[in-house]
Amino acid sequence: MTPLIVLTLVLMWQAVLVGYTFTLAGNAADEAVRAGTAAPPGGARQAACSAAGMKNLSAAWRGGAEVNCNPSGYVTARVELHVPVLFPGLIDFPATVTGHAGAVEEVKH
Question: What's this model's pTM, rounded to 2 decimal places?
Answer without folding.
Answer: 0.81
